[in-house]
Design a protein that fits this description.
Blueprint lengths: L3 H7 L11 H19 L4 H14 L4 E8 L6 E5 L5 H7 L9 H9 L3 E3 L12 H7 L3 E8 L5 E9 L7 H32 L7 E6 L4 E4 L1 H7 L3 H4 L14 H14 L1 E9 L5 E12 L5 E10 L1 H15 L9 H10 L4 E8 L2 H8 L1 H18 L9 E6 L2 E6 L5 H13 L3 E3 L2 E3 L3 E8 L3 H15 L4 E3 L2 H4 L3 H19 L3 E10 L4 E13 L2 E3 L1 H10 L3 H16 L5 E5 L2 H6 L2 H12 L6 E6 H6 L2 H12 L3 E7 L6 H6 L4 E4 L1 H4 L6 H16 L3 E5 L4 H9 L4 E3 L15
Parallel strand pairs: 16-17, 19-21, 21-22, 22-23, 23-24, 24-25, 25-26
Antiparallel strand pairs: 1-2, 1-5, 3-4, 4-5, 6-7, 6-10, 8-9, 9-10, 11-13, 11-16, 12-13, 14-15, 18-19, 18-26, 19-20
């Protein structure tokens, strides 16, 4: 759910000036960690590029990512990777000429600078390839040059969208990061290929060559040997191989090497020797034995390649994959790997910096970065005071740290120590004084530590600032079936939103005086694989994932479009999530004008709890909507403890009696009495009353006997995608 305070801040910025949020930085950081992790495990470049494109697309829905490279011989550009683009698109872009009219990618390479085209149908930069934009409905295209070590443009990374868009700073940072990652992968691919060639190559001018006698006295070396080791020929001739030894290989290493040479006649492997100046020299060495006519060893031939640069580069990539670049702490990937590899019982504490996003917004990201470094240093100094076993500090998200202990610890006392320390200090950065606190989520155990500590952290945040929560398996354990169900319906929801498969259904509401259907309630449905899914299954997933407002907007738009051809009044369900976003007034006004729907025809149904105990900001919104002409209904009335005075103050137009009291009103005396009392209250308050779940003739007879104004249920009308014909 969006933070209302943060929304107020962002509304003051044009799109191109909207600051990058901590979450967005974390999303970019996640892409870096994923791709660098793939490189560390030596995945092939094509798989890495395809994954990078997919990750970039996931952060800009309704888009396609592509990587194009310039051919050094022809100077023309071709697609290197674009997993979401059909082969026809690859063919259309084949042989693209960099230049002023060569599209976003052609211009990015031609000018060696980013290109952000918002309208490909009119922008002059797309003059030469306009037909491609038309053929594939590419409405906008943002492209970032991929540069080599000399900062020359050798290709482009682009996000093409099927709608006209202006990039925010987040999108520009995303493009810049992806282009930089492609350059790193290409460089790594170059070096890996070079390493493989070196390891397989025979004697040539670029390889160091040594020839020794059977006693390992050096007889000959080539110029490359001198260049690589720094030793002159005169320094080593007649000396044994020990002159090169660094001491980093043990006795067993050499025993195994000489044994294999004796048995197989050759040996290949990596050795760290030393140069003439004493610095380490990592080599890939191929040693072969030379035999005389009597099949006796007379010499050894050693061919070696300096792979120090490659090793250093690989180590750098491996380091980046498992370390945070700002604080140099181990990162989330490292924590997950440790938890996966070590099954012993441990303790884990997550620490989330309170109000960090506001600090970034108020003072800028440079202050935020300095603050994170200061916090890191303070926590490092605190670790010895924990008197705990092997505590390791991690930075796992933009504003989140983790403390892992190799044995179960008294996490409550550790949290108290951290709280007390930060309560008693202030942090000074660039003449800015800050008081810092955390929320803490802690857990001890053998499995699911990261997931369970995240659950605990969420509960701590719900308690307020500077609070902690220790995970309790009995109280907090998530039912596996419930979790799996959430995953299924969450994925289903995302798919439905992307494919326009959230649809409105309409159920008639009968006027018991006129005996006619005069109103309809709009109900949300999800279409999946030709099946219609009720909100009963996906509503909780939509709430937890923050998608309820998007669903409400779709239902408003589509129901207004249908009702533009009818004269019926109709009601739409509004959730607390919608009121928290504070968008309804403007959105409803826009749709009312678009479809020429009078606000008086629209009834906004809210749950009883919102009207009786809702936040003051929500009550103000409802009052404002009421003044604009929209009518209000309380749904499921009687399900909670109502604030009747609040209901009267809001001038509610309709009370809908909760279905559980109507369902058995003909057979359950308690249900009858409650429904009777609600109908009596509504009549005296001059509020129209609606009975829900009217499903047979007996129930309807009692509803009419109680003087309830309207009936809704399958007895009169089943929900339908079209306005149904009802009695």
């Amino acid at each position: 759910m969006i933070d209302p305070k943060k929304c107020d801040i962002l509304e003051n910025f044009p799109l191109e000036e909207v600051p990058i949020t901590a979450l967005e930085y974390n999303q970019i950081l996640a892409i870096q960690e994923t791709v660098l992790g793939m490189m560390a495990y030596q995945n092939n470049a094509n798989a890495i590029f395809s994954k990078l494109c997919s990750l970039a697309e996931s952060l800009l829905p309704n888009s396609a990512a592509s990587i194009m490279m310039k051919n050094e011989q022809t100077q023309l550009m071709n697609v290197l990777s674009a997993p979401s683009v059909p082969q026809l698109g690859h063919d259309a872009l084949c042989g693209l000429t960099p230049g002023p009219g060569g599209g976003s990618c052609g211009n990015a390479v031609f000018k060696n600078e980013p290109q952000f085209v918002i309208d490909t149908f009119t922008d002059e930069r797309w003059a030469d390839i306009r037909q491609i934009a038309y053929d594939f409905n590419l409405c906008s295209c943002w492209s970032m040059p991929i540069r080599n070590g000399e900062q020359q443009a050798i290709g482009s990374f682009a996000l093409s969208s099927f709608e006209h868009r202006t990039p925010a700073p987040f999108h520009k940072k995303l493009l810049e990061t992806c282009a930089h990652i492609v350059a790193i992968v290409l460089k790594n691919q170059q070096l890996s290929t070079k390493s493989l060639l070196y390891s397989m190559a025979l004697f040539n001018a670029q390889e160091g060559v040594m020839i020794t006698d059977c006693d390992n006295n050096i007889l000959e070396v080539n110029p490359a040997f001198e260049a690589i080791t720094g030793y002159k020929e005169s320094d080593v001739i007649g000396k044994t191989l020990s002159i090169l030894s660094s001491g980093k290989q043990d006795v067993d290493f050499y025993k195994n090497m000489w044994k294999k040479l004796q048995n197989k006649g050759r040996w290949s492997g990596e050795i760290t020797n030393k140069k003439a100046d004493g610095s380490p020299l990592t080599q890939w060495v191929n040693i072969s034995v030379i035999l005389n006519e009597q099949n006796k060893i007379t010499n050894y031939l050693a061919l070696f390649t300096d792979i120090s640069e490659i090793k250093a580069y690989q180590e750098k990539i491996s380091y980046m994959a498992y370390h945070d670049t700002l604080t140099n702490l181990l990162n989330k990937s490292s924590l997950e790997r440790t938890l996966l590899q070590q099954a012993d019982a441990k303790s884990l504490i997550l620490l989330n910096v309170n109000n960090f996003s506001y600090i970034n917004t108020a003072y800028g990201f440079s202050i935020g970065d300095k603050l994170l470094i200061k916090i890191t240093n303070i926590l490092k100094k605190l670790i010895p005071q924990f008197k705990a076993n092997n505590a390791q500090l991690y930075r796992i998200n933009a504003d989140e740290f983790a403390l892992l202990f190799t044995q179960p610890e008294n996490v409550e006392s550790i949290v108290h120590l951290i709280q007390q320390h930060f309560n008693n200090i202030t942090i000074d950065i660039s003449n800015i004084t800050l008081n810092i606190s955390f929320n803490y989520g802690a857990v001890s155990g053998r499995s699911h530590l990261f997931k369970n500590s995240a659950v605990a952290l969420k509960k701590a945040k719900e308690l307020g600032k500077n609070r902690y929560y220790i995970y309790d398996t009995d109280l907090d354990g998530i039912d596996v079936n419930a979790r799996d169900s959430f995953i299924v319906y969450n994925n289903m929801l995302h798919n439905a939103l992307e494919n326009n498969n959230i649809i409105p259904y309409f159920q008639g509401i009968r006027d018991n005086k006129s005996k006619k259907t005069t109103k309809y309630e709009v109900l949300a449905r999800l279409k999946h694989q030709n099946k219609i899914i009720s909100p009963f299954y996906f509503l909780e997933a939509a709430h937890l994932s923050g998608m309820l407002p998007e669903i409400t907007k779709i239902i408003i738009d589509k129901s207004f479009a249908v009702m533009a051809s009818h004269d019926y009044d109709f009601s739409i369900n509004i959730t607390e999530d919608d009121l928290s976003r504070d968008y309804l007034g403007d959105y409803l006004l826009t749709k009312s004008q678009q479809y020429n729907i009078s606000p008086k025809r629209v009834i906004l149904e809210i749950l009883e709890g919102v009207s009786s105990t809702g936040k003051s900001s929500q009550i103000k919104q409802l009052s404002k909507l009421k003044k604009q002409g929209y009518r209000l209904a309380i749904d499921d009335f009687g399900a909670e403890y109502s604030n009747f005075e609040r209901i009267l103050d809001l001038e509610i137009d309709f009370l809908k009696i909760d279905a559980k009291y109507i369902k058995h009103i003909d057979s359950d005396e308690k249900s009858y009495e409650i429904a009777k009392a609600i109908a009596y209250f509504a009549r005296n308050a001059n509020v129209a009353c609606v009975a829900e779940f009217v499903h047979n003739e007996k129930v309807q007879a009692i509803v009419e006997q109680l003087g309830i104004d309207y009936s809704q249920g399958y007895y009169f009308s089943e929900p339908s995608e079209n306005i149904p014909t009802v009695s």
